[in-house]
Design brief:
Number of strands: 7
Strand content: 15-25%
Number of domains: 1
CATH class: Alpha Beta
Low-confidence stretches: none
CATH superfamily: Aldolase class I
Bound molecules: iron/sulfur cluster
Distance between the termini: 24 Å
Structural class: alpha/beta
Number of helices: 6
Helix content: 25-40%
Strand order of the largest sheet: 1-2-3-4-5-6-7
Mean pLDDT: 96
Radius of gyration: 16 Å
Shape: globular
Order of helices and strands: EEHEHEHEHHEHE
Length: 198
């Protein structure tokens, strides 16, 4: 079972394969792994003792930052993510980033951003569409049309509790949409990044 793996000099964390979306561009439809994590499908979700044990074997100094990402939505395991991040923070001062689809308020039916305060340094939220209809068609969220507004609210909440908040889009969407997303990021007071679609 691969919990930790390396991508571009960063240490990635794979906690779950669960996700409330089925994005048209999901990396999970392109293969079984990424970076040196050749197989990121989990037979069962790793428990905190296994996570700590695997982390303790890692030479953390060789990595730039730690990234909660994996083959699923990391916030599907919010409590485990917090406990893992807290443990990592007790061992290193490396930046801890979370890559998320921003739908955790809908997963838990309550605001969640504040829970990340003090354990996550950077939150990178996949926006991927300039409006709800496009988001629905592109990401197929199980929560339906309220998803897009929930992402905007989550990002806004994050700005209160997390130092760096970023909206990202994949570079395979058209330039006009990218610019609209850039404008949404600006209006939301968060950073914006176009990430490469593999
Ligand atoms: S949110 Fe991420 S993990 Fe989930 S389907 Fe979309 S790309 Fe895949």
């Amino acid at each position: 079972m691969t919990i930790f793996y390396e991508v571009y000099g960063n240490l990635y964390v794979n906690l779950t394969n669960k996700c409330p979306c089925a994005c048209n561009f999901c990396i999970r439809t392109q293969g079984d792994g990424v970076g040196d994590g050749n197989f990121l499908w989990l037979e069962c979700e790793p428990q905190i003792d296994e996570i700590k044990k695997d982390f303790d074997k890692i030479e953390i100094d060789k990595y730039n930052e730690i990234v909660f990402c994996g083959f699923g939505e990391p916030l599907e395991r919010l409590d485990t993510l917090i406990e893992t991040a807290r443990y990592i923070k007790s061992k290193t001062d490396k930046i801890i980033r979370l890559n998320t689809n921003g739908l955790s308020d809908l997963i838990y039916n309550e605001p969640t951003a504040q829970k990340l305060q003090g354990v996550i340094d950077v939150v990178s939220i996949s926006l991927n569409a300039p409006d709800s209809a496009t988001y629905m068609q592109r990401c197929n969220p199980r929560f339906g049309e309220k998803s897009f507004d929930a992402i905007l609210k989550f990002a806004n909440d994050c700005t209160r509790y997390i130092k760096t908040v970023i909206f990202t889009v994949v570079d395979c969407i058209d330039d006009g949409e990218i610019e609209k997303c850039r404008k949404i990021a600006k209006e939301s007071g968060v950073e914006f990044r176009v990430r490469k679609f593999q």
